[in-house]
Amino acid sequence: MDQPNDIDLTETGLAPRQSGSVLLIACGALAHEVLALIKANDWQHMDVQCLPAKLHLYPEKITAEVERTVQEHRAQYQSLFVLYADCGTGGLLQAKCAELGVEMIEGPHCYSFFEGNATFATHLDTEISAFYLTDFLVRQFDAFVWKPMGLDRYPQLRDTYFGNYTKLVYQAQTNDPALDAKAADCANRLGLAYERRFTGYGDLATTMERIAQ
Amino acid sequence: MADDDEIILSELSDDELVLQMHDDLYDGLKEEIEEGVNILISRNWTPYDTLTKALVAGMTIVGADFRDGILFVPEVLLAANAMKGGMAILKPLLIATGAPRMGKMVIGTVKGDIHDIGKNLVGMMMEGAGFEVKDLGINNSVEKYLAAIESEQPDILGMSALLTTTMPYMKVVIDTMKEKGMRDDYIVLVGGAPLNEEFSKAIGADAYCRDAAVAVETAKAYMLRKHNRASA
Questions:
Q1: B167 near A CB under 8 A
Q2: Which of B113, B138, B167 sits opposite A90 (nearest CB)?
Q3: Which of B72, B138, B164 sits opposite A164 (nearest CB)?
Q4: Residue B44: how many CB atoms within 10 A of its CB?
Q5: Neighbouring C-alpha atoms within 13 Å toward the C-beta of B210
Q6: Is the complex ipTM more than 0.95?
Q7: How far apart are CA B129 and CA A13, in angstroms?
Q8: At A81, is the secondary structure helix, strand, or coil?
Q9: Which of chain B's residues have a Cβ under 8 Å away from the Cβ of A161?
């Protein structure tokens, strides 16, 4: 499968190949990582449908979209798995997945499962003023952070949004000097200290390994 | 020489000025709002009428358009900033002129959470509605909430959370109030993006408020019930 375009992943998601026995319903922001894991492990029985990453700007819409996608595809696949964490749905996505009889990846959000939920939990109380970016969010910083918050038009709002944060943590799934530089620039634009933290694919990898069996 | 299109606020009639202030609030023009407030006060408008007819009425329009998806968070924040500028002038005047008080609220974001935009909007609109507001800021432990309740003796406790991981702490606060036999002495309102009505009921809050306008109306309704019970 060709590498999907980040703008497409943001706006429209990624359509499935319509083959395989397992359908992963994932956030578009995870597409590159999910596809990389499928390719690296030759999981030919796994198919992926990504929902538009921009749903994160309206988390109240995530649950309904996941439900719609499950209902649309469940007849075609032996099993379906949801690669969204809670993602700001306040437990509603988990309740819906339980009702639909589909599993979802554990954790409050991708920042947690990329680091490993157990690891992330150890600094939940001590790192409350960190703003996290993943590889996807660094690449799509303007689309997901700068412009939706109106900082392109109203830079004076920067401290209203970020005044209580102290640092930007770039959770790197890959080692890419260009992304590192971009992440550091994001921190500078937000007026935050910068920290790079390599995570790899964390619990996303272990979860997909379990599903693949 | 002034631009022909430039509006001279002092040349507008009272009614025209109020409408212009609604527009200026909508556009987030803080200096113009401050000027407008000062003009109305100089024309012997009461601070209360200036607050309610110029500022609160203007923010009501902003809130309605936000709810309808016409305005978005950045514009609401700019409007709120403009309103804050006007309220900073009016606050001491409201106290001095004995403006009607609706009640008192202690509000804060829960422990582990640093998000405060929604909380700040609620606090500002509650002040606009005549409530006295003690804002505890962010990252509040149950001890801080209880200490504030004891020192401020509010009618209402407001708690805000933006993270699914921090919203359960609201139950810790409410359960502690129950253990101390004080839960029923206060109206507890909760809000924040991941919250919903079901969660609010499950943790024993009085109400979930999905935005600042709902928070004000809910607070007023509960205060009326409280007064009716006291009078009965």
A1: yes
A2: B167
A3: B138
A4: 6
A5: 7
A6: no
A7: 44
A8: strand
A9: 117
